[in-house]
Design a protein that fits this description.
With 363 residues, the chain is mainly alpha-helical. It has one domain: Alpha/alpha barrel (Glycosyltransferase). The chain is built from twelve helices and no strands. Helix 2 runs parallel beside helix 11, helix 3 runs antiparallel to helix 5 and helix 8 runs antiparallel to helix 9.
């Protein structure tokens, strides 16, 4: 077989095996960019915005090719308990990219791009959040035994991330929430509540799976870090929405309640970090699970970046000053994790094209 045929076959294999969760790298890159921008490093943030646009277009192209060439695999993924939630990352990624455009390009093109991405994300949110759940409910279950551990991980919480992402971006797209925009503010409040309720339902099952069923170290995937990331973006959504409601004469009375829920969400996110960090040490240091690139590792980067951004926003909302060092520390961790994961991605693509890589979905 000649070299061109080998490259073509390897490229087709990459398309066929493309993980639905690949859009998480757009989520992670976008939020780290916004965290960098909060520290005044706008040039670096803009460079990451440009990279993020390229990443999004590349992954969308890959997804389009997969739908065209391997439609059955793509549809089967939607009903899979572990791969299906990966589709939630697409609307979430669009929301983060829209927020990037709105914050880093505060001019007419940036505003229009943010608005366009909001409506596109809203449409895809409806398609995937309901579609994946419908596919899962109506599919044949792999194991119906009552004593079988539930096939669920933190990836399901990306449904919460995408819901609250709409709130974060919507609060930017519809600023002020004056009386004429009260319908938009009401919709954002409803979405915030929906995301909070979804988290309550899903985290109960996830914690049940972690605490009361046997758990091999290899099964403790990086996606469980979304347990913290989902509450971090809920915190950011609450901060943005509280500012939005203060400007509305009709909904301002909801602002104190919303602020309380926001502080609670930040506390829950912090609590999860306190549990996930030692679990990560147990997995990789004690149980010696190797660090090998997997798209789920972007689900570790995203919570670190989102926690940094939401903590800064919460401190601005509450006037707190004693925790200023915390987002600086988490920003350093987020940048380190993003760099390591991006290098892992580059190494994986190189090895894949030279025929030496393993399937990243295998983990």
């Amino acid at each position: 077989m000649n070299t061109c045929s080998q490259w073509r076959n390897r490229l087709l294999d990459m398309v066929a095996e493309q993980a639905p969760a690949n859009f998480a790298m757009v989520m992670a890159t976008g939020i780290v960019s916004l965290a960098v921008a909060q520290r005044g490093m706008k040039t670096a943030a803009l460079a990451m915005l440009a990279l993020n646009a390229v990443l999004l277009l590349s992954i969308l192209t890959g997804l389009g090719a997969r739908l065209a060439l391997f439609p059955r695999r793509a549809l089967q993924d939607a009903a899979h308990p572990l791969r299906g939630p990966g589709y939630f990352t697409l609307p979430a990624a669009l929301c983060v990219l829209g927020r990037q455009c709105g914050v880093l390009l505060p001019n007419l093109p940036g505003t229009h791009t943010a608005q366009m991405l909001f409506w596109l994300a809203a449409m895809l949110w409806a398609v995937f959040v309901w579609g994946v759940l419908l596919a899962r409910i109506t599919s044949a279950k792999e194991d119906s035994r009552q004593d079988a551990p539930p096939a669920i991980n933190g990836a399901w919480l990306v449904a919460v991330v995408s819901t609250q992402g709409l709130v974060v971006l919507g609060s930017h797209v519809f600023p002020g929430a004056q009386d004429a925009d009260s319908a938009a503010a009401l919709l954002m409040v409803a979405l915030f509540g929906t995301g909070f309720a979804l988290y309550g339902m899903l985290i109960t099952i996830i914690l049940y799976r972690l605490a009361f069923f046997p758990l091999a170290a290899k099964d403790l995937s990086p996606s469980f870090w979304i347990n913290a990331g989902a509450m971090a973006i809920t915190t950011l959504a609450g901060c943005e929405l509280t500012h939005m409601l203060h400007a509305s004469s009709q909904l301002a009375a909801l602002a104190p309640t919303l602020q309380g829920l926001t502080i609670m969400a930040w506390g829950l996110s912090t609590w999860w970090f306190g549990l996930l960090l030692p679990l990560g040490i147990w997995r990789h240091v004690i149980q010696r699970v190797p660090l090998r690139y997997n798209p789920e590792y972007w689900g570790l980067v995203f919570p670190l970046g989102m926690y940094t951004v939401c903590t800064v926003s919460l401190l601005e909302l509450t006037g707190g000053t004693s925790l200023q060092a915390l987002p600086m520390a988490t920003l350093g961790a987020a940048l380190l994790a993003w760099t390591a994961t991006f290098c892992g991605l580059a190494r994986f693509i190189f090895h894949q094209m030279t025929g030496r890589a393993q399937n990243p979905q295998a983990a």
